[in-house]
Write a structure and sequence with these properties.
Elements: H1 3-20, H2 37-40, H3 51-72, H4 88-107, H5 112-132, E1 140-142, E2 145-150, E3 155-156, H6 158-176, H7 184-203, H8 208-224, H9 229-249, H10 251-261, H11 266-269, H12 274-286, H13 311-347, H14 351-376, H15 393-417
Antiparallel strand pairs: 1-2, 2-3
Helix pairs in contact: 3-4, 3-13, 4-15, 5-6, 6-7, 6-8, 6-14, 6-15, 7-8, 8-9, 8-14, 9-10, 12-13, 13-14, 13-15, 14-15
InterPro entries: Cell_cycle_FtsW-rel_CS, FtsW, FtsW/RodA
Subcellular location: Cell inner membrane; Cell membrane
Organism: Caldimonas caldifontis
Length: 422
């Protein structure tokens, strides 16, 4: 046997021995080829991604771009926006989507191990920004609320970063506390303290809507992480009690609740319930098939914030019940798919990734539910945008980054199921 033949046979034997050490992870009775540097001569690469999830997100972004333009094209007729071009919000929204796309490409390159390692520091960074936005020389106030940090091309809202940060922190927290999750003071109390701190900073802005979403994310991750049921319901009762106390102690919040309960009362329809009544009128005008794209009347200065918080009402008026049902189904499918990716990661013993994905699912699904409920008059009015659709640079940016993290989790899941390494 020649030297070349002996070398080739030795290399084949080495691959066979090393390949035997790698577990196959296919279905029962089915071998899965090992796709790594042993068989290809190349470093391990992530292969495959959830194309359906990507296309649903792209469709929602595209619909949002069209509807933001439709809802905002008449705003320059208002003296408040007289210096704006008709395409002002369209261009800025398109730039936000472009920036989000670039950020997603970067996020997709970051392994989940890196996110898990730095999750506490990301949470600390979010807390610092929540403090900074309250400072007069840093934060920007609009309509009595101080929630934005002006960056020139973008007004960044730290509460949007806090939603992703709390999802990562809670997921990492549950992994670290897995051995003591049955003990209240060791497992739940520190997380509750962190949530209280975030809540105080958000209520100082004030931004009760963001706090509701963040509380839902933290509580959901704790529940899915396996916290004792009695401790979970005790903590949930405390959170609900805190919200009731905040409403009862705030006169304008009480008025908003009364307006929600009886929006057509003359005392409310021209005051706290003004947005809600015009939102309901928009849905009523839309009927089944809508008035047609661009044909909304309510967006002509009758419905405030039509391109942000009440974009769904414009969709209902122009695209009708069919359009609204399609949006609701898209968010239902998206949330369900994100949860499936999370469960898949947990089944592969990747608890941090799984809980994080489910936390993102709670964020997207929960915020969409609240926004839709507000638009339809099912829930009291809150200043929350519709994820991936409403106008808002930092919201679009953080929504897309969160989806990119879920895609990274899915890609690593697929790599592991092929017998590779995440």
């Amino acid at each position: 046997m020649s030297t070349t033949s002996r070398a080739a046979s030795g290399w084949e034997a080495f691959k066979a021995r090393l390949g035997a050490l790698r577990p196959a992870s296919g279905k029962k009775g089915q071998d899965v080829p090992v796709r790594d540097w042993v068989s290809t001569g190349q470093p391990t690469r992530l292969q495959g991604f959830d194309q359906a999830l990507v296309w649903v997100v792209v469709a929602l972004l595209a619909l949002g771009l069209v509807m933001v333009y439709s809802a905002s094209v008449a705003l320059p007729d208002n003296p408040r926006f007289a210096r704006y071009e008709p395409t002002h919000f369209l261009v800025r929204h398109a730039l936000s989507i472009g920036l989000a796309f670039i950020a997603c490409l970067v996020v997709l390159q970051i392994p989940m191990q890196v996110w898990e390692k730095h999750a506490p520091w990301l949470f600390v960074g979010a807390l610092v920004l929540l403090v900074a936005v309250l400072l007069p020389f840093i934060g920007k106030g609009v309509n009595g609320a101080r929630r934005w940090i002006p960056l020139g091309f973008l007004n960044f809202q730290p509460s949007e970063l806090a939603k992703l940060a709390i999802a990562m922190y809670a997921a990492g927290y549950m992994v670290r506390k897995m051995d003591v999750k049955e003990r209240f003071f060791q497992a739940v109390a520190p997380m509750a303290a962190a949530l209280v701190l975030v809540g105080l900073l958000l209520l100082a802005q004030p931004d009760m809507g963001a706090f509701m979403v963040i509380a839902a994310i933290a509580m959901g991750v704790l529940f899915l992480g396996g916290v004792n049921g009695r401790m979970f319901f005790l903590m949930a009762a405390l959170v609900v009690g805190a919200f009731v106390l905040m409403v009862s102690l705030s006169e304008w919040r009480r008025e908003r609740i009364f307006a929600y309960l009886d929006p057509w009362n003359e005392a409310h329809s021209l005051g706290r319930a003004y947005q809600l009544t015009h939102s309901l009128i928009a849905f009523g005008r839309g009927e089944i098939f809508g008035q047609g794209l661009g044909s909304s009347v309510e967006k002509l200065h009758y419905l405030p914030e039509a391109h942000t918080d009440f974009l769904l009402a414009v969709i209902g008026e122009e695209l009708g019940f069919i359009g609204v049902a399609a949006v609701i189904f898209a968010f239902f499918w998206l949330t369900r798919r994100i949860f499936h990716i999370g469960r898949q990661a947990i089944a592969l013993d990747r608890v941090f990734s799984g809980l994080l994905a489910q936390g993102v699912g709670i964020w997207v699904g929960g915020q969409a539910f609240i926004n839709m409920g507000v638009n339809l008059g099912v829930l009291p009015t809150k200043g929350l945008t519709l994820p991936l659709l409403s106008y808002g640079g930092s919201a679009i940016l953080m929504n897309c980054i969160a989806i990119a993290v879920v895609l990274r989790i899915d890609m690593e899941n697929r790599q592991l199921m092929r017998g590779g390494r995440a």
